[in-house]
Amino acid sequence: MLDQSKNNETSLIPEKRYFTIGEVGELCGVKPHVLRYWEQEFTDLNPVKRKGNRRYYQRHEVLMIQQIKDLLYDQGYTISGAKAHLVSNKSNDKLNNSKQLIREILMDLEGILDLFK
Fold first, then answer.
1. Do residues 68 and 82 touch, judged by C-beta distance below 8 A?
2. What pLDDT was estimated at residue 2?
3. For residues 77 and 69, is the Cβ–Cβ distance under 8 A?
């Protein structure tokens, strides 16, 4: 079942390609120095750096920051626990995507088999 509070958080993110560290801080309620620290701890959090070493976050990174904040601040995870949780979710997502792809291939093959009958 979908958590309404999570759904509301994602709908509050403006539809734009890049966000500055200040914008992300306001959207997620996290100070910029915390975001810079999380970049060191969570390797998947890797904003684009442009002129003057300015950070520009993409939407998927803002969503990840919201998830990290939830794990650390609301659910009480440690940094290492949050890392482990994110890695396990990532592998579960890959597994679910693989299962879906196999189902689609099987349906296509069954359709082809029906054509030959």
1. yes
2. 38
3. no
pLDDT tens digit sequence for 68-112: 999 999 999 999 999 999 888 775 666 666 777 777 788 888 888
Domain 1-76 has CATH 3.20.20.140: no
pTM for the model = 0.67
| Distance from C-alpha of 4 to C-alpha of 43, rounded to nearest angstrom | 28
**Cβ distance 49 to 55 under 8 Å?**
yes
Please answer whether residues 31 and 38 qualify as being in contact, where contact means their C-beta atoms are separated by less than 8 angstroms: no
The DSSP code for 52 is G
Residue 29, token pair as written in the block: 């309620």
Backbone angles phi, psi at 29, to 5 degrees: 70, 35
Domain positions in the chain are: 1-76, 79-117
| Average pLDDT of the residues of the chain | 84
Nearest residue to 63 via CA among 37, 49, 48, 44: 44
Token representation of residue 100: 């879906």
